[in-house]
Design brief:
By secondary structure, the protein is α+β, with helices and mostly antiparallel strands. It has a single domain, classed as Nucleoside Triphosphate Pyrophosphohydrolase (Alpha-Beta Complex), CATH 3.90.79. It contains 4 helices and 9 strands, in the order ββαββββαβββαα. The strands form 3 sheets. It has a 4-stranded mixed β-sheet, sandwiched between helices. It has a 3-stranded antiparallel β-sheet with strand order 5-4-9.
Length: 177
């Protein structure tokens, strides 16, 4: 830093809305505080499906702040403070898999809670055969699965329980046999 300027280094801090069960904003905190105190926040989940009905699954990076290395059946993430669910879905789809030419279709909403997360969610679906770009480092492996492959993945691998509960258990998506 040049001592002859008034320029200060500003740390980029991601801000998140803490919400109640009715999705009303209570306050704004840093992402780190939200994680540390397991605060209810907003999240988006986007199922990416091939035109033949297979589902894109991916393995999360080992550098993720929660559940590193687990497999996931949806791309998505935390909605930033002041951001809409729809805007977050578009952003996450572009960041995680490099898809920006397709707008996610809303398919449902719900809430989820476990030892890691308490969240209000909106779920989306896109049909896109690729290509996919995993430029931000959040995804370390990805593959298409049919229903039998998905059942095998769920039985043999550690998989994110939030996306399974919100997308599969609620019947919001079906996967080709």
């Amino acid at each position: 830093m040049n001592p002859n300027t008034n320029t200060e280094l500003v740390e980029l801090v991601e801000l998140v809305d803490v919400v109640d069960e009715d999705d009303r904003v209570i306050r704004v905190v840093t992402r780190a505080e939200m994680r540390a105190h397991r605060l209810r926040h907003r999240g988006v989940f986007i199922a990416v499906q091939h035109t033949d009905g297979r589902l894109l699954v991916h393995q999360r990076s080992f550098s993720k702040d929660v559940c590193p290395g687990l497999w996931d059946i949806a791309v998505g993430g935390v909605v930033a403070s002041g951001e809409t669910y729809d805007t977050a879905a578009v952003r996450e789809l572009a960041e995680e898999v490099g898809v920006s030419a397709v707008v996610p279709t809303p398919i449902g909403a719900g809430s989820f809670s476990d030892e890691f997360f308490v969240l209000n969610a909106r779920c989306y679906r896109v049909v896109c055969d690729g290509p996919f770009v995993f430029a931000d480092g959040e995804v370390i492996a990805a593959r298409w699965v049919n229903r039998a492959d998905l059942d095998d993945l769920l039985a043999t691998q550690r998989v994110m329980t939030d996306s399974v509960a919100l997308l599969l258990a609620q019947g919001l998506i079906t996967v080709a046999e």
